[in-house]
Amino acid sequence: MRSSFVFTIVAPEGAWHAHFNLEPGRCYGPSEVPVNHGAAALRSPHTLRVEAATLPSEEEFRELAARAATRTADPSPDPLRQLLNLLIPF
Questions:
Q1: HSE-up of 80 (CA within 13 Å, CB side)?
Q2: Cβ neighbours of residue 69 under 8 Å, at least 6 residues apart?
Q3: Along the 90 residues of the chain, how does pLDDT read in single tens digits?
Q4: Nearest to 16 by CA among 53, 62, 72
Q5: Would you call 20 helix, strand, or coil by DSSP?
Q6: Model confidence over 44-53: pLDDT tens digits?
Q7: pTM of the model
Q8: Per-residue burial over 38-73, b = 16 or more CB atoms within 10 Å of its CB, e = otherwise
Q9: φ, ψ dihedrals at 48, nearest 5°
Q10: Rounded to whole angstroms, how far apart are CA atoms 16 and 60?
């Protein structure tokens, strides 16, 4: 079952957004990250928003977003791993 996930990094000069339709257990790579640049926030029931002093490069954003999506798609039954994924999303 797919679920919606939005990863956003916001800084004074703008924002990067990535929207995923996650597949359980899938590993996402930087080349699979759909990148949007701008102030308009994407909406999803599951959103991770990071506030930064400066925006990362697009390449760095893609790497962070791919890691966050992979961890969010991990359907680990281990409650400690689930908690760790929530506390350290990427």
A1: 0
A2: 5, 7, 18, 20, 22, 28, 33
A3: 578 899 999 999 999 999 999 988 889 999 999 898 876 666 777 888 899 999 999 999 999 999 999 888 876 677 887 777 667 765
A4: 62
A5: strand
A6: 778 888 999 9
A7: 0.80
A8: eeeebebeeebebeeeebeeeeebbbbbbbbbbbbb
A9: -120, 115
A10: 11
The Cα 78–Cα 40 span in angstroms is: 36
Across the beta sheet with 47-51, the strand order is 35-37, 14-22, 3-11, 47-51
Query: Residues 6 or more apart from 59 whose CB is under 8 A from it?
Result: 30
- Token pair for residue 82? 């689930």
Q: Is 5 exposed, middle or buried (0-12, 13-18, 19+ CB in 10 A)?
A: buried
